Amino acid sequence: MTAKERKYTFLQNTASTNAYLKNSRALTKAPAFEVVCANSQYAGRGRLGRDFFSPEGGAYFSASYPLDKNQKNIPFLTLL
Known about the structure:
Layout: E1 6-11, H1 17-28, E2 33-38, E3 41-45, E4 51-54, E5 60-64, H2 76-79
Parallel strand pairs: 1-2
Antiparallel strand pairs: 2-5, 3-4
């Protein structure tokens, strides 16, 4: 997968979209835009390591966005 490729994964249920995404990125190694979306999460983690439950019926997601060498940390991406 190259940096210009995009990957979208839709899950009915997962422990955590973020954990799923981190695992996927670790297996691929190549930078890419990737979104993982789930209808529910049963072991989500928020800020400061807080656990939360995301009941069925929501749209819970995590995304990775590859930055090139000239880009710095872009704080507004978190707000998106």
